[in-house]
Amino acid sequence: MPPALPICPHLPLSRPGLDWRALHAFRVTARGADFYVACLEYAHALWRRRLPARAILCLDRAFGAELRGDEVILEAHPLPYAAMRWIIEQAPPELFIGNPRIHFQHYADRMNEPRREQRRWRAWACWAIVRAIRPGLPADLRHQVEEPTIAAITDGLRENGFPNEELYWTCALK
């Protein structure tokens, strides 16, 4: 069995044996702070198991948690922009991550409720991170969408995100 990938410094350590049931338990309950923590932990477990693409998708789910922005967990583990960047940067080339640029392009443009605008701007923020660290990844040219500027993403996060969310994102972007 190949060795585990290194610990991500931006995610909580995952409990031993964590699997899909960690999130499945929330299928009929509120997806608040406990769901957020479960997403972060499970993303870390997937990363360590050499599954970076699935870890990225799990972080997507964390961004969609039903949070107000004042939860205590966000002090220790702010929205996972830095974790998203770290995982995409650190993914070994032999492991599948797909094309996260296209993933976020499609995700942002096809976002549904709840909290559509908030989640949409978070997806565009992740798209911008991918563009910054993997500029060679192509866009989906068949998917006609107006790609936002950094200024538009900053404004979108400021208007629809948590207080100072755009600052966490810009730190991860740089």
Q: In whole angstroms, how far apart are the ends?
A: 35 Å
- Share in helix: 40-55%
Please, how many helices?
A: 9
User: pLDDT below 50 for ≥5 consecutive residues: which ranges?
Assistant: none
| Main structural class | mainly alpha
Sheet-strand content, in percent, reads under 5%
Q: What characterizes the major β-sheet? A: none
Rg over CA atoms, rounded to whole Å, is 15 Å
Estimate the global geometry from the Cα principal axes.
globular
Tell me the number of structural domains. Answer: 1
Mean pLDDT: 93
Order of helices and strands: HHHHHHHHH
Number of beta strands: 0
Tell me about this structure.
The protein is mainly α and 174 residues long. It has one domain (21-173). The chain is 54% helix and 0% strand. The chain has helices at 21-24, 33-48, 52-63, 73-76, 81-90, 100-109, 116-133, 150-160, 165-173. Helix 5 runs parallel beside helix 7 (116-133), helix 7 runs antiparallel to helix 8 (150-160) and helix 8 (150-160) packs antiparallel against helix 9 (165-173). The protein is globular, with a radius of gyration of 15 Å.
Relevant terms:
mainly alpha; globular; 174 residues; 0% strand; 9 helices
Write the layout of secondary structure elements.
Elements: H1 21-24, H2 33-48, H3 52-63, H4 73-76, H5 81-90, H6 100-109, H7 116-133, H8 150-160, H9 165-173
Helix pairs in contact: 2-3, 3-5, 5-7, 5-9, 6-7, 7-8, 8-9
